[in-house]
Every structure is written in C-alpha cells, then in structure tokens.
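Project standup — Tuesday

K.O.: blocked on the structure for the chain from last sprint. Re-posting the sequence here as requested.
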Amino acid sequence: MSYIVFARKWRPRDFKELIGQEHIVATLTNAIKLNRVAHAYLFAGPRGVGKTSTARILAKALNCQEGPTATPCNKCVSCNEISSGISMDVMEIDGATNRGIEEIRTLRENIKFMPTAGKFKVYIIDEVHQITPEGFNALLKTLEEPPEHAKFIFATTQPHKVLSTIVSRCQRFDFRRISIKEIASKLSLIAVQEGLTIENEALYNIAHAADGSIRDAESIMDQLVSFADVGKDSKKIITGADVTAMLGVIESDILFNTMELVAKKDAPALVRLIDDLVNRGKDLVLYLASLSEHIRDLMLAKLGKDCEQIIDVPKDIAQRMVRQGQDFLSEELLYMFYVISAAHEAMKRSDMPRIPCEMALIKLASFKGPAQLPEILAKLKELEESLRKDAESPSKEYGDSNINKPDLESPRQLDLTGRAGPQARTDEPRAEKAPDAGTGGNGLNYGLDIARVCDIWPQAIREIKEKKISVGSFLSEAKAVSCSGSTVVIGFPKQLVFHKEAVEKDSNKKLIEKVLSDMLKRDTQVSFTLSDELQAQGASKARISSEPEDSSDRQDKDRAQAGSIDDPIVKSAANIFGGRVVKTSNNNIGRQT
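H.V.: unblocked you, prediction finished:
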C-alpha cells in the first residue's frame, strides 16, 4: 500500500474525533437524534479546521446501516465507501471547476434519482463561493425545495462571497480556528500512534506555525519526520531546534535574549544580534512580528494568572516569561510594542528592512523609562522652593539691593513659571497689594492677582485685536477692576453700555477668556460691569480737543495723524473697502471711494 500522509491518515472519522468545534458537533448530533436534519448546510471558516471532514461525518451518520445515528459505526460498507471517497450516494464536488451554469444543470438533472445503497444522496460542494452567480441562480429553486432524499452541504473559506439568496436557504455553521494547545494535544496523540519522540516545545512550535489549522500542523509534522530522519524504530528525539531550522521561525531563546539586552540598555549587542540573524538567513520581518507577540505575552504574564492562561506556550516557557516580565513596567512594554509595531510596518514598505529593525531596537535600548511618581513629586517640591526663594529675594533677580520688588517700569517681568512676562508701563506707580485670600503661606497664588492681570492687560488687548479687531477696540475702553478666584471682573465706563453688551456675546467672551488663560497660564473666566469711576477715552479726548492748542500741541497732533495714516490696521481697512485714507481721528476714518 502506498504511503498516506498524516493529514489524510489521521482525518477525523466521527464527531468525537473532531477538535475545536464543540458547538457544531453538539448541534448536528442533536439534530440527528431529534430527526431535525436540514436539507442544506453552509460550513464557513478558515482552512484546515474540519469543514469537509465534518461534511463526510454527517454523510456517514445519515447513510450508516445503523442510522441515521450520531455515532456512525465506521465498519459498514456505506461508512467505508464514504471514508474512502468512492460512495455513489455522496458526491464531493469542487466548486472551482464545477462553477458554471451547465454543471449546475447537470446536478439538477441527477438529483431526482434515488440513492443506490444509502438512505440519502448527499452533495458536498467545496469552495462553493467560486460558483458563478448564474450557477447559483440555477440552483436556487432546487436548493429551496429539494427531494426528500437529497441533502446539500456547502463548504467555503469566504462566506461573504456566497449570494445571500443561497445563505438564506441554508443553516450556517461558523468553524473557528483551533487553539495552539488543542493542536499540540492532537499532534502529541499522533506522535504516540506513530511511535515518534518529540519535545513539547517542538509541538508548540508546529502548532504556532500552523496558524489555527490542524491540517497544516499535521502536514508540518509529516515533513518534520523526514527532515529529522526519524524512523519508526528510531530513538532520535525531534527537538524545537529541528522545527525552527526546517521552518525558519524565530527561536524563543532569541526573543528572550533580545528583551534581556533591552533591559540592560545594551544597544551594541542588539545590533550584533541583528547582524547574526541576517547572516543566518532569518527573516527580519518575521523576527519583529515574533518580538511583538513576545512583548504581548510578557504583558499578559504581568497581568496575573488569569491572563497567563491565554499565553499559548509550554509551561516552562510561560514561567520564564513571568520572570522576565518582572524586569519591565507595563508602561515600558506598551511603549516597546508600539515602537516594534511601527518598525514592522515600515519594514514592509522598505527596500532595506534591516535599517528600521536596527533603529527600533536602538530606540528601545535608549528608552529611559517613565518617570516615577516620587521623582515627579521631588521635582515639583524643588521648583516650589525655588519660586519661594525668588519671591523672598527679588533683589537677586534685578541686581539692586535698594529695590524691594519689580515695578511696572522694569524692563523684564517674571510670572510664577519663571517666564519673562510682557513689558508694561504706566504713569502711576502701582500700590502695594495685600496678600490675596487665595494665596497660600508658601507665597504661591492659588487665586488670580489683580496686579498681575493689570500688568498683562495691554498685551492681552493687542492679542485680542489681532484675532478680532472689534473686540479689542471695545476692550480698549475697559479696565480689569478686580479678581475673584479664577474670574476677572472687567469694568466699562457707565456710558459705554453698547461696548459691554458686545463683548458679553458668547463667542467674544470665549475669545477673551482664552487669551487671558494662555497669558496667565491657568483657566480664567471673565465678567463685565459698568462703573461710574471709569471714564471713556473718547469723551476725555473730546474735552481736551476743545481747549486752545499751542504750536507744540499742533505738531504732536500732526505727528500722531501721520502715524495713524501709516497704521497697519488703517491700511488694511482701506484695502478691504477699496479706498484711500484722507483723514483719521480717534474713532473715525474718512475715506473717499
């Protein structure tokens, strides 16, 4: 008898031998017991997970001499013929080669004939998604109302390509990928039956390479026996190194060594490791993919025993991961995962994949790690102490022992963050202000300081004008009169009701609050009020202009007039309206179009 490969030799013969599809086995066996077998089934799922095998087992269960039964005997003529693929009542059709309307018409003509030996005629159509739309349409009526002796079983790896009219006439079963542990367990049973001695690590390496397909795993194991030159009577052990050598996968020792070098911040050793992998012909894209999965496993190992069970590796490897995971913080592992993932994507698009791989590992080795909370608190305390000393000894900052504190005439102002504030000038000296209610004993202001607000008020108006000139012009008539907590109270002269109402609009108010918040380095709100004590600038200027002018006043006014003509805002307004400037005054611009 010719040699039979493992994938065919160890194909499941009944529902008990199916692995990883317990939900489907339970449904089909109950349907057979209750005589509720449907006329059409759609088996969907990845390759090599048991779709066609399940279809054959169902056909045997229906046509067994003892059936229909959920446990076919596998001894009768019908069961043996179905297992061998030579039964006249079970027709396996390849959807890729029998996809046209003519083949479907032939099927429709033959379906009316009764089975030869069994109780049912079963049509198993593999890769059914490849049938043409015309072929599907020709099958619709027959599929909806087939003869009582006919059963259809469709198998596909791409169920989304099957017409919805076909799917709606079938009972759909979704086959899942088989876990690494389940595949390794099945391979261990096959090894015992075949008289092979194979390491547990090798079984897991095969299962991992199979990517959820039991058929692929059996094919890899079959090839491995030939690669390792292991006969049935041989005492040789198949090792994990044999699997990695045959498949070119990355050994777990390389991944553990990589993370050890990252923990030691040994960038040169990491570069030498990459060079060694290249010289050995390893795929660096596969290496980074394996390293990403290794980092993921380390993270799961740090999350506790509940997550350790999700790691599909042998027990000794899992324990080693738990120990190595203690060398890293969770934040570090997350950072490493994102760096490796980005490099992995870059390597796919690069003609020189080695460079992104090396740069990623050097970046990991250079990572300082997240700052610890005690360090952050210590730095904050140090900064607070430094600010307190600056507040107690302002003479050190300005170099004049006769000056107790910086005034508004000083060329440089400092806020609490140590940044240089805006230069502000005023003709009146600023009065000493008592400590605010929100000021702590350490000298830090927790509430707003009206003196500080007054300092930055001119610059704030200029910035607001740059963003919205009308709002800035209205605020030119106002002053910051007081502070309450995080709220600045802005006062207008009593006669400027329109100005107050304009800036109280929601959009204008938010603009003012944003500019003040950015300048004061904290969230700031504003409120507006009318004050009898404030006087409109326009009114005061009107009174001054009514008084006699001497020659010096006239010269100053002419220079101011010339300056206003050159003002960028005046020029911008002239450009917008297509005019030219004839005369300017405080609040009026004459123009001729």
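K.O.: great, moving the ticket to review. Residues 180-247 form a domain with the Helicase, Ruva Protein; domain 3 fold (CATH 1.10.8.60). Residues 47 and 403 are 85 Å apart (CA to CA).
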